[in-house]
């Protein structure tokens, strides 16, 4: 198979590329990434000699058409996005430009050249939020009720992708996934931020809504789910990928501090952000029943390995932390 991975220099994309090169060594993998502040070539260093890397924007239709033709691409997997929910509150235009308008460039290129599958990676956040004590979860038929600019831009991109299936017959599939954790995540996101701050004895900034919960999945469980959807998932279908493993933000901080043997006094409360979603929970019975996918990573040991990875890879995250966007308070992070 010949695979194009857009956004492959980001957190999930780079883990997916490493996973794919190991699971399918006979395949050709091309990565297209705009290398925004969140993109990092070094995240692909372990597979550098196994892939073709192209620095470019997925919204550049002419470029994407050329890549699709020259590399005779069968399947496109789209991870490219602006992904930092808190940054979207400060700079929403940037999120709609990338997550909606650039996605359209990719869709149009796929439509004009033709591909066997365009798989689009989305999020649980398109559905809005749940009460902390609710027994509900979101399934694939739940209505979209995004409440923040990031969530709305992701919702719009999902709608655009689906519209190309219904209108032009573009063979698409979509996965909406819970919060991923693992190595190579930009230190603006909660687990790498808390781990790297704790390593340096810096405060862990907890938004005052520290009881908000998130559902966590190891990034390689997510990568395997996408592989199964590309392989056996129905064209035009959406699959949820979640674990039902929930942690509040404060529980996560406590767990990370305990792994690193650091004092709980490092926890510091900071003012909440607007329209902060309390909780999301995905019903993943469709992918489990139809494709036989199950998560295999245990959260405690997966988190320990992840925190140790940040301890051992300071050279990777230190330069990224210096270029991370900040607001006037100097704190800007998202709990994912
Ligand atoms: P990330 O911010 O780490 O990576 C995004 C990558 O996209 C970066 O390498 C960036 O340079 C690249 N990019 C941005 N704009 C581009 C463009 N126009 N053309 C080409 N490349 C571009 O994000 P992530 O956490 O790896 O998320 C990947 C995808 O998964 C996103 O669509 C996100 O919404 C979705 N998602 C993430 C999570 C999570 O927990 N991180 C959960 C569910 C869904």
Per-chain topology:
Elements: E1 2-6, H1 11-23, E2 28-33, E3 51-55, H2 61-70, E4 75-78, H3 85-90, H4 92-113, E5 117-123, H5 149-168, E6 172-177, E7 179-181, H6 190-199, E8 204-207, E9 213-218, H7 219-232, E10 238-241, E11 246-248, H8 249-259, E12 267-270, H9 285-291, H10 299-312, H11 314-323
Parallel strand pairs: 1-2, 1-4, 2-3, 4-5, 5-6, 6-10, 7-9, 8-12
Antiparallel strand pairs: 9-11
The structure holds nicotinamide-adenine-dinucleotide (NAD).
Nicotinamide-adenine-dinucleotide (NAD) binds at residues 6-7, 9-13, 32-36, 38-39, 57-59, 79-81, 83, 98, 102, 121-123, 154, 177, 179-180, 186, 336.
Summarize, please.
This protein has helices spanning 11-23, 61-70, 85-90, 92-113, 149-168, 190-199, 219-232, 249-259, 285-291, 299-312, 314-323, and strands spanning 2-6, 28-33, 51-55, 75-78, 117-123, 172-177, 179-181, 204-207, 213-218, 238-241, 246-248, 267-270. The two termini are 31 Å apart.
General description of the model:
There is one protein chain. The protein is of the alpha/beta class and 336 residues long. Helices cover 41% and strands 17% of the residues. β5, α5 (149-168) and β6 (172-177) form a beta-alpha-beta unit. α2 (61-70) packs across α4 and α4 packs parallel to α5 (149-168). The radius of gyration is 19 Å and the shape is globular. The model has no long low-confidence stretch (mean pLDDT 96). The chain binds nicotinamide-adenine-dinucleotide (NAD). Nicotinamide-adenine-dinucleotide is lined by residues 6-7, 9-13, 32-36, 38-39, 57-59, 79-81, 83, 98, 102, 121-123, 154, 177, 179-180, 186, 336. One of its GO terms (molecular function) is dTDP-glucose 4,6-dehydratase activity. It is an enzyme of class 4 (lyase). It catalyses: dTDP-alpha-D-glucose = dTDP-4-dehydro-6-deoxy-alpha-D-glucose + H2O. Residues 4-306 form the NAD(P)-binding domain.
